[in-house]
Amino acid sequence: ALCWVHEGRHYKKLSPFIACHQTILKDFLDDFWDYYRDLLAYKDSPSQQKAEKLRSEFWKLFSLQTGYEQLDERKRLTLLKISELLLVLEHPELPLHNNPAELAARTMVQRRNISYATQTLEGTQAWDTFMSLVATTRQLGISFFEYIRDRISQTGNIPFLATIIREKSALNSFGLSWMPE
Q1: Considering the domain boundaries, does residue 56 fall inside one?
Q2: Number of domains, the chain
Q3: What is the maximum span of the chain, computed from C-alpha positions, in angstroms?
Q4: Looking at residue 125, what is its pLDDT?
Q5: Which domain covers residue 142, as residue numbers?
Q6: Is residue 109 part of a domain?
Q7: Are 104 and 132 in contact (CB under 8 A)?
Q8: What CA–CA distance (Å, rounded) separates 12 from 24?
Q9: Are residues 81 and 124 in the same domain?
Q10: What is the pLDDT of residues 141-174, one digit of tens each?
Q11: Is the pLDDT score of 101 beyond 60?
């Protein structure tokens, strides 16, 4: 699935000079975010009827020519991504944006910039491993320090991360939309 927030950013980058194009873009962005809100509402109570309505609205929103050439081209590019952007209609449990993943990656980039990267391939691998452990323990609500101390001392008070992830994911099933037919 693709991120709707990122798709919206493409439109925000457009900067028309002509007043009528500015109005057209503003109206389109209002419709874009209204559609996004409709998708969020669909996720809360999905139905086949709502999914068909949203598919139809997607085509109307992104295929209607406005006369503002840059906007029409951008809309054409969005139409090409229909299957990835509307995957949520088949799998309502999917997020509409990937901002949490973006924020996790940003943390790694910031630390890399501060430390001026690593000197060796082994250093890069160790850095990536530890950054991944920090992010994973944080998401699971486990103290990274306590987790590392438990592993080094081999006391085994904290289960392996894979075990914790399996247990938590069993509580949050993906839903029937992912079950094989």
Answers
A1: yes
A2: 2
A3: 69
A4: 86
A5: 120-178
A6: no
A7: no
A8: 13
A9: no
A10: 999 999 999 999 999 899 998 888 888 877 766 5
A11: no
Q: What's the pLDDT at 131?
A: 84
Residues contacting 79, CB < 8 A, separation 6+: 59, 62, 63
**Structure-token match 């054409």, residue found:** 76
d(CA 115, CA 99): 24
Q: Same structural domain for residues 31 and 72?
A: yes
Q: Which residues have a Cβ under 8 Å from the Cβ of 87 and sit 6 or more positions away? A: 1, 2, 94
Same domain, 30 and 77: yes
> pLDDT by residue (tens digit) across 14-35?
999 999 999 999 999 999 999 9
The neighbour count for residue 91, using CB atoms within 10 Å, is 15
Q: Is the pTM of this model over 0.70?
A: no
Same domain, 79 and 29: yes
Is residue 82 situated within a structural domain?
yes
Residues 9 and 84 grouped into a single domain:
yes
Two tokens, residue 56: 């139809």
Residue 59 lies in a domain: yes
Does residue 118 register a pLDDT over 80?
A: no
Type of residue found at 139:
Q
Query: Is the pLDDT score of 60 beyond 70?
Result: yes
Could you write out the DSSP letters of every residue in 49-78?
HHHHHHHHHHHHHHH---S-HHHHHHHHHH
